[in-house]
Amino acid sequence: MSDGAEDHPTSEELAERKMRFLFALRSRGVTDTRVLTAMEKIDRGLFVRNIFADRAYEDMPLPIACGQTISQPSVVGLMTQALQVSPRDTVLEVGTGSGYQAAILSQLARRVYTVDRYRRLVREAAELFRRLDLVNITAIPADGSHGLPDQAPFDRIIVTAAAEDPPGPLLEQLKPGGIMVVPVGQSDTVQALIKVTRTSRGFDYEELRPVRFVPLVEGMGSE
Ligand code: SAH
């Protein structure tokens, strides 16, 4: 690219891009100001590295390495909002992917653990977290369908890959009063985003909206 203007947008262009990005989030129901502030601060463009990088500010999912996807910003916003994270919370994310969702959570929680079955994705996300000085995120290569027993229990759990049912180990690793947000359903079909709240008597389930995520796969990935 020889055109410098394309590489370095002017501050006016940056401001307009940010305004459109936040407007799209609000118009799709992301209204929590703490969530919007976090999404204003964390630049999604840093988490999309390939030929799709120039679409990072559009409200669409995009391909990342290892055949995975970075979720649509409005879905990240709505899931984060549904999780009702407070500044004292310890959060587990299953499905690090690009690291974008974890970076948003790092602005709202005390501590974020994020796991992915692809070591490469964890390594690349951890490099970005260091660069951005997001010191309260710990990224670990692991099969998240077993949760993270050494760090459990968690105040909040977010799963960013679709399971056929909310995985039992994750339910067990949720504190009483804790909330888990998880897409449930077969891959390649429309799934339902579910909010699970652990009560003193058991679990309450609330269906939030239709979504489409890559599947939760057992075992470690090949890269
Ligand atoms: N939250 C990510 C997007 C996740 S895409 C972001 O903000 O970019 C879903 C991710 O879940 C993929 O990276 C995939 O490798 C991961 N995944 C699927 N099954 C998994 C499992 N059992 N344990 C951990 N990660 C898993």
Looking at this protein, list some descriptive labels.
223 residues, binds S-adenosyl-L-homocysteine, 7-stranded mixed β-sheet, alpha/beta, Rossmann fold
Give an overview of the whole structure.
- With 223 residues, this protein is of the alpha/beta class.
- It has one domain: Rossmann fold.
- 30% of the residues lie in helices and 24% in strands.
- The chain is built from 7 helices and 9 strands, in the order αααββαβαβαββαβββ.
- Bound molecules: S-adenosyl-L-homocysteine.
- S-adenosyl-L-homocysteine binds next to β2, α5 and β4.
- It comes from Rhodobacter calidifons.
What is CATH's topology name? Rossmann fold
Radius of gyration, in Å, reads 17 Å
Total helix count? 7
What ions, cofactors and ligands are bound?
Answer: S-adenosyl-L-homocysteine
- How large a portion of the residues is in β-strands, by DSSP E? 15-25%
CATH architecture descriptor: 3-Layer(aba) Sandwich
Largest sheet: 7 strands, mixed
**Chain oligomer state:** single chain
Count structural domains: 1
Q: Order of strands across the biggest sheet? A: 5-4-3-6-7-8-9
Please provide the count of β strands.
9
CATH class: Alpha Beta
Structural class: alpha/beta
In one word, what is the shape?
globular
Which bin fits the share of residues in helices?
Answer: 25-40%
List SSEs in N-to-C order. HHHEEHEHEHEEHEEE
GO biological process, one term: methylation
GO molecular function: protein-L-isoaspartate (D-aspartate) O-methyltransferase activity
Active site: 71
EC number: 2.1.1.77
